[in-house]
Amino acid sequence: MKPKVENKKAKNKSAKLKNKATKKRKLEDLDASSDDEGIQLKDTRQSDEPVPKKTKWVNKQRVLVLCARGINHRDRHLMKDLKTLMPHHRSEPKMERWKTLSVVNEMSEMKHCNKVVLFEGRRKRDLYMWLANVEKGPSVKFLIENINTMGEMKLTGNCLRGSRPILSFDQEFSKQPHLAVIKELLTQVFGVPNHHPKSQPFVDRVISFTYLDNRIWYRHFQILSEDGGLAEVGPRFVMNPIKIFEGSFSGDAIWENADYQSPAKHRQLLRKAAKDKYLNKQKQKIDHEVNAPKVTHDFDKYADVFQGDEEEKAKELLEKEEQEEAEEAERKAIEEQHKRMKKKDEMKKLKQLAQAKKTGKALAKGKKKQKTTLKAKKKGKNKVEADDSD
């Protein structure tokens, strides 16, 4: 039995050697062909390695989300909420105010982004948002109003982070041409690309854009059931479109909102209205005081006689009558004193006037005498001079 086993082992060894030789020949042939074609192959390759497949991530939209200096805390939280809802975003530190908007295009190119969401603040009150397509345009400028962040509202909705949303648009977006442009930008910015590495393969939320009162209302909901049950997640805000530009942060204005009014102008009008309201109120008050009747109607003194105890009421009435009589007597005495004082003052004034007249007459007589004496003296001098000349 032993020699048979040895023969089997020898046969197995020879077969293995033959297999190795054939493998070496194949590798040499492959090396030669690769050298000819200029392709470099790996030295070693494991059999468990998967075969490379085509990537499913085709729509490689990247959105640069940044803000300029000057926004307040609520605007910053809104930007943070939008970043959490957009797994395909790329962030950038705050942009300085002195920089022009054309710098944003360079930033997006450095970050390999083709869409931009820029937040600008004015006076720590007003927030403006830019949506732009970096390559060829267009770009849209919005005024953001009625901001409510997710942390502020504390709503019941809770969707999966990184999931893909369903974008719901109003019918008005297909009727008006400028809204069609805005719709395309919104879909490319807020729509999460399919098979994005940071996204989840689920659809459990809806972002609705409703056009009402010349504004776009943004709402974010969680899908609770297939029947259409929704729960709001947040954030919520209103976009008031101002202008659409041909290029990215540049170019001619394709469309302009004729009904747009700046928030500073709106506040000025409100202050004027409040001022006019105050003046009207004061005028009405003065008119009421001037035109109000002094005596509306007479009250009956004895109307409350039969209410309560009769004796007490009678005593109170007697006391009131006595007080009124005393007050009338005092008032009459005071009036008589005033009359006497007035008469005395008038008499004094008359005496003073009479004395002044007397003194005035005396002064006038003295002046006349002086004038006559001066005239007489002048005449005497003239006569003397005439005699001397003769």
Automatic annotation (TrEMBL):
GO terms for biological process: ribosomal large subunit assembly; rRNA processing. Residues 39-52, 329-349 have a biased composition (Basic and acidic residues). Keywords: Nucleus, Ribosome biogenesis. InterPro entries: Brix (IPR007109), BRX1 (IPR026532). It comes from the Eukaryota. One of its GO terms (cellular component) is nucleolus. Residues 61-250 form the Brix domain. It is found in: Nucleus, Nucleolus. Residues 10-25, 358-381 have a biased composition (Basic residues). Belongs to the BRX1 family. This is Ribosome biogenesis protein BRX1 homolog. It comes from Aedes aegypti (Yellowfever mosquito). The lineage of its organism: Eukaryota, Metazoa, Ecdysozoa, Arthropoda, Hexapoda.
